[in-house]
Amino acid sequence: MCKRVGGGNGWSIRSGNSLLPRVGRLIREANRQALKTASNDALRSSMPSDKCGGKPAHCTADRCCPTGVPHYRRDEFSFGVTVNALQQRTGEISFIAKDALNGCARQPLFERASKALAGADAIISAAVEQSSINRHGMLSELLTACASDRILFVDCETLGFGSMPIFLIGALEWLRGLHKLVLHQWLAHDYSEEPLIIEAFLSIMNGCALISFNGKAFDVPMLRSRCMRYKLAWVEPVAHIDLIHISRKLWGEQLGDCRLSTLCVAMRHPVSAPPSSLLPELYCQFVENPTEALRESLLLHNAVDVCALPVLLYAALRSITP
Q1: Rounded Cα–Cα distance for residues 315 and 319 (Å)
Q2: Residue stretches of the chain with pLDDT short of 70
Q3: Residue 196 contacts by C-beta under 8 Å, 6 or more apart in sequence?
Q4: Which fold has domain 19-320?
Q5: What integer pLDDT is reported at residue 160 of this predicted model?
Q6: What CA–CA distances, in Å, run from 14 to 133, 207, 315?
Q7: pLDDT digit string (tens) for 243-295?
Q8: Per residue, what are the HEC states of the chain?
Q9: pTM above 0.85, yes or no
Q10: Domain boundaries, the chain
Q11: What pLDDT does residue 156 have?
Q12: pLDDT for the residue 204
Protein backbone atom coordinates (compact mmCIF):
# COMPACT_ATOMS: atom_id res chain seq x y z
CA MET A 1 0.00 0.00 0.00
CA CYS A 2 1.04 3.66 -0.30
CA LYS A 3 2.28 5.01 3.00
CA ARG A 4 2.85 8.55 4.11
CA VAL A 5 6.49 9.37 4.71
CA GLY A 6 8.15 12.32 6.36
CA GLY A 7 5.90 14.19 8.75
CA GLY A 8 2.67 12.58 7.61
CA ASN A 9 2.05 15.01 4.77
CA GLY A 10 1.69 12.36 2.08
CA TRP A 11 4.23 13.79 -0.36
CA SER A 12 6.89 11.09 -0.45
CA ILE A 13 6.39 7.77 -2.20
CA ARG A 14 6.90 4.38 -0.61
CA SER A 15 5.52 1.11 -1.85
CA GLY A 16 4.56 -2.12 -0.18
CA ASN A 17 3.73 -5.53 -1.56
CA SER A 18 0.13 -4.57 -2.27
CA LEU A 19 0.83 -1.28 -4.07
CA LEU A 20 0.72 -2.43 -7.69
CA PRO A 21 -2.65 -4.24 -7.50
CA ARG A 22 -4.14 -1.25 -5.65
CA VAL A 23 -2.73 1.24 -8.18
CA GLY A 24 -4.13 -0.84 -11.03
CA ARG A 25 -7.58 -0.99 -9.47
CA LEU A 26 -7.66 2.76 -8.77
CA ILE A 27 -6.52 3.68 -12.27
CA ARG A 28 -9.05 1.34 -13.90
CA GLU A 29 -11.86 2.72 -11.73
CA ALA A 30 -10.86 6.34 -12.48
CA ASN A 31 -10.74 5.60 -16.20
CA ARG A 32 -14.17 3.88 -16.12
CA GLN A 33 -15.66 6.89 -14.36
CA ALA A 34 -13.95 9.26 -16.81
CA LEU A 35 -15.19 7.37 -19.84
CA LYS A 36 -18.73 7.33 -18.49
CA THR A 37 -18.61 11.07 -17.70
CA ALA A 38 -17.12 11.97 -21.08
CA SER A 39 -19.63 9.84 -22.96
CA ASN A 40 -22.62 11.34 -21.17
CA ASP A 41 -21.58 14.96 -20.75
CA ALA A 42 -19.17 15.74 -23.55
CA LEU A 43 -21.73 14.86 -26.23
CA ARG A 44 -24.31 17.28 -24.83
CA SER A 45 -24.52 20.41 -26.90
CA SER A 46 -23.84 23.61 -24.98
CA MET A 47 -24.28 27.26 -25.83
CA PRO A 48 -20.92 28.70 -26.92
CA SER A 49 -19.07 30.87 -24.44
CA ASP A 50 -19.14 34.61 -25.06
CA LYS A 51 -15.50 35.02 -24.13
CA CYS A 52 -12.23 33.45 -25.17
CA GLY A 53 -9.10 33.92 -23.10
CA GLY A 54 -10.74 36.72 -21.15
CA LYS A 55 -11.43 38.79 -24.29
CA PRO A 56 -14.85 39.36 -25.87
CA ALA A 57 -15.47 37.23 -28.93
CA HIS A 58 -18.00 37.26 -31.72
CA CYS A 59 -19.60 33.87 -31.16
CA THR A 60 -20.96 31.70 -33.87
CA ALA A 61 -22.78 28.40 -33.76
CA ASP A 62 -19.46 26.63 -34.41
CA ARG A 63 -16.94 28.20 -32.05
CA CYS A 64 -16.44 30.55 -29.10
CA CYS A 65 -13.76 32.74 -30.71
CA PRO A 66 -13.28 34.75 -33.89
CA THR A 67 -11.98 32.82 -36.87
CA GLY A 68 -8.22 32.37 -36.72
CA VAL A 69 -8.01 32.95 -32.95
CA PRO A 70 -7.18 29.88 -30.80
CA HIS A 71 -8.88 29.42 -27.48
CA TYR A 72 -6.68 30.82 -24.71
CA ARG A 73 -7.34 30.29 -21.02
CA ARG A 74 -5.35 31.92 -18.23
CA ASP A 75 -5.73 31.02 -14.55
CA GLU A 76 -3.70 32.92 -11.96
CA PHE A 77 -3.11 31.80 -8.39
CA SER A 78 -1.08 33.66 -5.76
CA PHE A 79 0.22 31.87 -2.71
CA GLY A 80 2.33 32.51 0.35
CA VAL A 81 2.28 29.17 2.17
CA THR A 82 5.02 28.76 4.75
CA VAL A 83 6.79 25.47 5.38
CA ASN A 84 5.05 25.06 8.74
CA ALA A 85 1.64 25.67 7.19
CA LEU A 86 2.51 23.24 4.45
CA GLN A 87 3.29 20.49 6.96
CA GLN A 88 0.13 21.20 8.97
CA ARG A 89 -2.19 20.90 5.97
CA THR A 90 -2.68 17.19 5.43
CA GLY A 91 -5.96 17.22 3.49
CA GLU A 92 -5.96 15.04 0.40
CA ILE A 93 -7.63 15.60 -2.95
CA SER A 94 -9.60 12.64 -4.22
CA PHE A 95 -10.04 11.60 -7.84
CA ILE A 96 -12.03 14.14 -9.85
CA ALA A 97 -13.27 11.87 -12.61
CA LYS A 98 -16.94 12.35 -11.71
CA ASP A 99 -16.54 16.14 -11.70
CA ALA A 100 -14.26 16.28 -14.75
CA LEU A 101 -16.29 19.00 -16.44
CA ASN A 102 -16.78 21.09 -13.31
CA GLY A 103 -14.76 24.31 -13.46
CA CYS A 104 -14.46 24.31 -9.67
CA ALA A 105 -12.12 21.30 -9.94
CA ARG A 106 -9.29 23.66 -10.93
CA GLN A 107 -9.05 25.41 -7.56
CA PRO A 108 -7.84 22.41 -5.53
CA LEU A 109 -5.32 21.64 -8.28
CA PHE A 110 -3.78 25.09 -7.92
CA GLU A 111 -3.84 24.88 -4.13
CA ARG A 112 -2.03 21.56 -4.14
CA ALA A 113 0.51 22.74 -6.72
CA SER A 114 1.18 25.91 -4.72
CA LYS A 115 1.77 23.93 -1.52
CA ALA A 116 4.20 21.68 -3.36
CA LEU A 117 6.10 24.64 -4.81
CA ALA A 118 6.25 26.40 -1.43
CA GLY A 119 7.89 23.27 -0.04
CA ALA A 120 10.14 22.91 -3.10
CA ASP A 121 11.25 26.53 -2.79
CA ALA A 122 12.19 26.00 0.86
CA ILE A 123 14.24 22.89 0.01
CA ILE A 124 15.97 24.66 -2.89
CA SER A 125 16.85 27.68 -0.76
CA ALA A 126 18.24 25.49 2.03
CA ALA A 127 20.31 23.41 -0.39
CA VAL A 128 21.78 26.49 -2.06
CA GLU A 129 22.74 27.98 1.31
CA GLN A 130 24.56 24.78 2.32
CA SER A 131 27.47 25.33 -0.02
CA SER A 132 29.41 22.43 1.49
CA ILE A 133 26.66 19.92 0.66
CA ASN A 134 27.82 16.95 -1.41
CA ARG A 135 25.21 17.14 -4.13
CA HIS A 136 24.68 14.15 -6.34
CA GLY A 137 23.75 14.51 -10.00
CA MET A 138 19.95 14.68 -9.67
CA LEU A 139 20.01 17.39 -7.02
CA SER A 140 22.48 19.53 -8.96
CA GLU A 141 20.36 19.17 -12.07
CA LEU A 142 17.19 20.20 -10.24
CA LEU A 143 18.88 23.17 -8.54
CA THR A 144 20.27 24.40 -11.86
CA ALA A 145 16.84 24.37 -13.47
CA CYS A 146 15.11 25.91 -10.45
CA ALA A 147 17.61 28.77 -10.25
CA SER A 148 15.55 30.60 -12.89
CA ASP A 149 13.01 33.18 -11.75
CA ARG A 150 10.53 31.84 -14.33
CA ILE A 151 9.93 28.12 -14.61
CA LEU A 152 7.43 26.50 -16.97
CA PHE A 153 5.85 23.12 -16.26
CA VAL A 154 4.83 21.99 -19.75
CA ASP A 155 2.51 19.36 -21.20
CA CYS A 156 1.43 19.03 -24.85
CA GLU A 157 -1.54 17.08 -26.14
CA THR A 158 -1.26 15.61 -29.64
CA LEU A 159 -3.14 13.34 -31.99
CA GLY A 160 -0.31 10.81 -31.88
CA PHE A 161 3.39 10.44 -32.56
CA GLY A 162 5.65 11.52 -35.39
CA SER A 163 4.08 14.09 -37.68
CA MET A 164 0.70 14.20 -35.94
CA PRO A 165 -0.38 17.74 -34.92
CA ILE A 166 -0.34 19.34 -31.49
CA PHE A 167 -3.79 20.60 -30.54
CA LEU A 168 -3.37 21.73 -26.92
CA ILE A 169 -0.45 23.17 -24.94
CA GLY A 170 -0.52 23.73 -21.20
CA ALA A 171 2.20 25.75 -19.45
CA LEU A 172 2.11 26.31 -15.69
CA GLU A 173 4.33 29.33 -15.09
CA TRP A 174 6.00 29.49 -11.66
CA LEU A 175 7.05 33.06 -10.82
CA ARG A 176 9.26 32.27 -7.85
CA GLY A 177 9.94 35.80 -6.66
CA LEU A 178 6.26 36.76 -6.81
CA HIS A 179 4.93 33.51 -5.24
CA LYS A 180 2.52 33.20 -8.12
CA LEU A 181 1.33 30.48 -10.48
CA VAL A 182 -0.15 31.21 -13.89
CA LEU A 183 -1.65 28.42 -15.98
CA HIS A 184 -1.64 29.20 -19.72
CA GLN A 185 -3.60 26.90 -22.04
CA TRP A 186 -3.88 27.22 -25.80
CA LEU A 187 -6.40 25.04 -27.63
CA ALA A 188 -6.69 24.91 -31.43
CA HIS A 189 -10.28 24.95 -32.65
CA ASP A 190 -9.16 23.01 -35.72
CA TYR A 191 -5.96 21.70 -37.28
CA SER A 192 -5.20 24.96 -39.09
CA GLU A 193 -4.62 26.75 -35.75
CA GLU A 194 -1.73 24.53 -34.65
CA PRO A 195 0.99 27.05 -35.63
CA LEU A 196 -0.86 29.77 -33.73
CA ILE A 197 -0.88 27.89 -30.42
CA ILE A 198 2.79 26.95 -30.84
CA GLU A 199 3.72 30.55 -31.58
CA ALA A 200 1.79 31.73 -28.51
CA PHE A 201 3.63 29.21 -26.33
CA LEU A 202 7.01 30.26 -27.73
CA SER A 203 6.24 33.87 -26.83
CA ILE A 204 6.30 33.05 -23.10
CA MET A 205 8.94 30.28 -23.17
CA ASN A 206 11.83 32.60 -23.97
CA GLY A 207 14.20 32.82 -20.99
CA CYS A 208 12.41 30.13 -18.99
CA ALA A 209 13.53 26.79 -17.62
CA LEU A 210 11.27 23.88 -18.56
CA ILE A 211 10.09 21.04 -16.35
CA SER A 212 8.22 18.25 -18.08
CA PHE A 213 7.28 14.59 -17.85
CA ASN A 214 8.79 12.69 -20.78
CA GLY A 215 9.34 16.07 -22.42
CA LYS A 216 12.87 15.33 -23.64
CA ALA A 217 11.64 12.32 -25.62
CA PHE A 218 8.21 13.63 -26.66
CA ASP A 219 7.04 17.21 -25.98
CA VAL A 220 10.17 19.16 -26.93
CA PRO A 221 11.02 17.06 -30.03
CA MET A 222 7.40 17.43 -31.14
CA LEU A 223 7.47 21.20 -30.62
CA ARG A 224 10.82 21.51 -32.39
CA SER A 225 9.58 19.42 -35.33
CA ARG A 226 6.35 21.38 -35.70
CA CYS A 227 8.29 24.65 -35.54
CA MET A 228 10.40 23.46 -38.47
CA ARG A 229 7.24 22.56 -40.38
CA TYR A 230 5.76 26.04 -39.91
CA LYS A 231 9.09 27.91 -40.15
CA LEU A 232 8.83 29.19 -36.57
CA ALA A 233 11.99 30.12 -34.68
CA TRP A 234 12.68 27.54 -31.98
CA VAL A 235 14.92 28.64 -29.09
CA GLU A 236 16.18 26.04 -26.66
CA PRO A 237 15.11 26.60 -23.02
CA VAL A 238 17.77 27.77 -20.55
CA ALA A 239 17.39 24.41 -18.78
CA HIS A 240 15.12 21.39 -19.08
CA ILE A 241 14.31 18.85 -16.36
CA ASP A 242 12.49 15.69 -17.41
CA LEU A 243 10.88 14.25 -14.30
CA ILE A 244 10.28 10.83 -15.84
CA HIS A 245 14.00 10.00 -15.66
CA ILE A 246 14.27 11.14 -12.05
CA SER A 247 11.11 9.21 -11.15
CA ARG A 248 12.49 6.00 -12.66
CA LYS A 249 15.70 6.33 -10.67
CA LEU A 250 13.91 7.07 -7.41
CA TRP A 251 10.83 4.87 -7.56
CA GLY A 252 11.09 2.60 -10.59
CA GLU A 253 11.85 -0.55 -8.59
CA GLN A 254 9.08 0.02 -6.06
CA LEU A 255 6.32 1.04 -8.47
CA GLY A 256 7.09 -1.25 -11.37
CA ASP A 257 6.28 1.47 -13.91
CA CYS A 258 6.59 5.24 -13.76
CA ARG A 259 3.68 6.40 -15.86
CA LEU A 260 2.29 9.70 -14.67
CA SER A 261 -1.01 8.05 -13.71
CA THR A 262 0.85 5.54 -11.50
CA LEU A 263 2.82 8.31 -9.80
CA CYS A 264 -0.34 10.37 -9.29
CA VAL A 265 -1.98 7.48 -7.45
CA ALA A 266 1.10 7.00 -5.27
CA MET A 267 1.18 10.74 -4.45
CA ARG A 268 -2.61 10.87 -3.95
CA HIS A 269 -2.88 13.41 -6.75
CA PRO A 270 -5.93 13.38 -9.04
CA VAL A 271 -5.72 11.14 -12.09
CA SER A 272 -6.51 13.07 -15.27
CA ALA A 273 -9.97 12.49 -16.68
CA PRO A 274 -10.81 11.66 -19.39
CA PRO A 275 -7.79 9.33 -19.80
CA SER A 276 -5.08 10.18 -22.33
CA SER A 277 -6.15 7.37 -24.66
CA LEU A 278 -9.53 9.07 -25.16
CA LEU A 279 -8.20 12.56 -25.87
CA PRO A 280 -7.56 12.29 -29.65
CA GLU A 281 -11.09 10.98 -30.17
CA LEU A 282 -12.57 13.77 -28.02
CA TYR A 283 -10.59 16.38 -29.91
CA CYS A 284 -11.84 15.06 -33.25
CA GLN A 285 -15.38 15.36 -31.88
CA PHE A 286 -14.57 18.90 -30.73
CA VAL A 287 -13.40 19.89 -34.22
CA GLU A 288 -16.68 18.63 -35.68
CA ASN A 289 -18.88 19.96 -32.87
CA PRO A 290 -17.06 22.52 -30.67
CA THR A 291 -19.26 22.44 -27.58
CA GLU A 292 -18.30 23.98 -24.27
CA ALA A 293 -18.47 20.57 -22.57
CA LEU A 294 -15.92 19.05 -24.93
CA ARG A 295 -13.66 22.09 -24.66
CA GLU A 296 -13.66 22.06 -20.86
CA SER A 297 -13.05 18.31 -20.79
CA LEU A 298 -9.92 18.71 -22.93
CA LEU A 299 -8.66 21.69 -20.93
CA LEU A 300 -9.21 20.04 -17.56
CA HIS A 301 -7.36 16.88 -18.55
CA ASN A 302 -4.37 19.02 -19.46
CA ALA A 303 -4.66 21.09 -16.27
CA VAL A 304 -4.65 17.96 -14.07
CA ASP A 305 -1.52 16.60 -15.76
CA VAL A 306 0.44 19.84 -15.73
CA CYS A 307 -0.48 20.55 -12.08
CA ALA A 308 0.86 17.11 -11.13
CA LEU A 309 4.39 18.16 -12.12
CA PRO A 310 5.01 20.57 -9.18
CA VAL A 311 3.83 17.83 -6.80
CA LEU A 312 6.22 15.37 -8.43
CA LEU A 313 9.07 17.89 -8.27
CA TYR A 314 8.52 18.35 -4.54
CA ALA A 315 8.38 14.58 -3.94
CA ALA A 316 11.66 14.17 -5.83
CA LEU A 317 13.38 16.96 -3.88
CA ARG A 318 12.25 15.44 -0.58
CA SER A 319 13.62 12.07 -1.61
CA ILE A 320 17.10 13.21 -2.65
CA THR A 321 17.90 15.90 -0.08
CA PRO A 322 19.37 15.04 3.35
Answers
A1: 6
A2: 1-64, 80-105, 129-137, 272, 322
A3: 68, 69, 70, 186, 188
A4: Nucleotidyltransferase; domain 5 (3.30.420)
A5: 83
A6: 25, 36, 11
A7: 999 999 888 888 888 888 888 888 887 776 777 888 999 999 999 999 999 99
A8: CCCCCCCCCCCCCCCCCCHHHHHHHHHHHHHHHHHHHHHHHCCCCCCCCCEECCEECCCCCCCCCCCCCCEEEEEEEECCCCHHHHHHCCCCCCCCHHHCCCHHHHHHHHHHHHHHHHHHHHHHHHHHHCCCCCCCHHHHHHHHHHCCCEEEEEEEEECCCCCCCEEEEEEEEEEHHHCEEEEEEEECCCHHHHHHHHHHHHHHHCCCEEEECCHHHHHHHHHHHHHHHHCCCCCCCCEEEEHHHHHHHHHHHHHCCCCHHHHHHHCCCCCCCCCHHHHHHHHHHHHHCCCHHHHHHHHHHHHHHHHHHHHHHHHHHHHHCC
A9: no
A10: 19-320
A11: 96
A12: 93
